[in-house]
């Protein structure tokens, strides 16, 4: 959904602020980010390019701040034109604290038409084109409210051919769960809240990411404010969930209250760290399944390169002066023989090449030898 923390969740995975966050829809085109683990780097190194980026928007060896400014500027231009784009921005993010994987940060869906242009079909087209790509795993962000009022699930059903077509490759996050802490203040109420989710094969990880009180700031100020939030996110989330569970224990300690213990399945999916671990396992298992296919492709590539190397090695002989002299001398000798054989018996040739003349006796001997 709009403003469901997609860009922030991506930032927490990468411990870096890379995409725009603002009230309403900030992300107006997919941001495809390839993470590359490089232990030797002390600071992240980035490369950014895109079909619709202006010429000075593309760049090599960019800092995180430079990427943020360029991505923000591009999304704001799309916003000013009141449009969404299917043309992605591509980012290579190389750092010492990421796992090799690719993220696609997408636009959020809009349920109802508001005033102005209706962009809902454009957004659906963007999301479907990204979700249909091979080997894609879905990270679906749910709002912290009842199952029946989470339209993103119906959207996935409609766009991806029914529940069985996508549910097995999806991981669910319930972001901004701090909004639900008060309503789920007892174990019984929390278990009841998640019952319908579980019945529909939807097992969300509960995530709390601190948010800014005001997001319509200048890009530089917004960048700095979000960096501070990311730095404190883990500890704040841990403290808030601990307070929530302590409240359950306190309520249950009163003999008058016959309250349930929080479902162990729910307990195992509390905090962003649990979600990150599950997503990394999904990516690694998926990679392991495709290792034979990758090895076969690498072998075919290696054979092709070996053949190419052999051809180039043969060609390189003709660039060495000594080798070239021997080849050219041999070629001239054979050419001369061919020319003389062709001109054998010609009077003018005999005058021009007296050294090559053959006596009758030599010719008879050669005939006898043959």
Please explain how this structure is put together.
This protein is α/β, with parallel strands linked by helices. It folds into 3 domains: 11-109, no CATH class; 137-289, no CATH class; 320-370. It is built from 12 helices and 8 strands. The chain has helices spanning 6-14, 64-80, 120-131, 151-159, 187-199, 219-253, 264-267, 272-289, 291-316, 321-342, 347-352, 360-369; strands spanning 31-37, 45-50, 59-62, 89-95, 101-105, 138-142, 170-174, 205-206. The strands form 2 sheets. The chain has a 5-stranded mixed sheet, with helices on one face. A 3-stranded parallel sheet has the order 6-7-8, covered by helices on one side. The longest helix has 35 residues, at 219-253. The radius of gyration is 35 Å and the shape is elongated. The termini are far apart.
């Amino acid at each position: 959904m709009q403003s469901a923390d997609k860009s922030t969740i991506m930032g927490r995975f990468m411990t870096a602020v890379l995409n725009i966050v603002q009230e309403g829809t900030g992300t107006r085109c997919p941001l495809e980010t390839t993470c590359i683990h490089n232990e030797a780097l002390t600071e992240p190194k980035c490369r950014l390019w895109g079909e619709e980026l202006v010429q000075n928007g593309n760049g090599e060896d960019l800092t995180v701040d430079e990427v943020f400014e360029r991505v923000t500027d591009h999304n704001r231009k799309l916003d000013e034109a009141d449009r969404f784009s299917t043309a992605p921005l591509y980012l290579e993010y190389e750092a010492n604290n990421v796992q090799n994987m690719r993220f696609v940060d997408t636009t959020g869906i809009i349920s109802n038409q508001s005033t102005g242009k209706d962009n809902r079909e454009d957004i659906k087209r963007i999301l479907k084109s990204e979700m249909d790509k091979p080997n894609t795993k879905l990270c679906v962000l749910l709002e912290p409210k009842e199952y029946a009022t989470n339209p993103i699930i119906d959207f996935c059903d409609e766009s991806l051919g029914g529940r069985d077509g996508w549910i097995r490759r999806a991981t669910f996050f319930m972001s901004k769960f701090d909004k639900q802490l008060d309503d789920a203040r007892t174990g019984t109420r929390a278990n009841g809240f998640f019952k319908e989710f579980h019945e529909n094969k939807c097992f969300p990880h509960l995530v709390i990411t601190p948010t800014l009180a005001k997001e319509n700031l200048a890009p530089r100020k917004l960048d700095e404010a979000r960096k501070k939030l990311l730095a404190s996110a883990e500890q704040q989330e841990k403290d808030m969930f601990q307070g929530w569970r302590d409240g359950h224990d306190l309520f249950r300690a009163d003999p008058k209250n016959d309250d349930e213990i929080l479902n162990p399945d729910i307990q195992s999916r509390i905090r962003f760290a649990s979600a990150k671990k599950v997503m990394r396992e999904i990516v690694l298992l998926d990679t392991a399944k495709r290792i034979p296919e990758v090895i076969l492709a690498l072998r075919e590539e290696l054979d092709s390169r070996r053949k190419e190397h052999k051809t180039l090695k043969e060609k390189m002989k003709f660039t060495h002066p000594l080798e070239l002299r021997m080849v050219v001398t041999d070629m001239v000798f054979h050419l001369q023989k061919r020319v003389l054989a062709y001109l054998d018996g010609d009077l003018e040739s005999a005058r021009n090449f007296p050294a090559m003349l053959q006596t009758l006796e030599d010719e008879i001997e050669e005939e006898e030898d043959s």
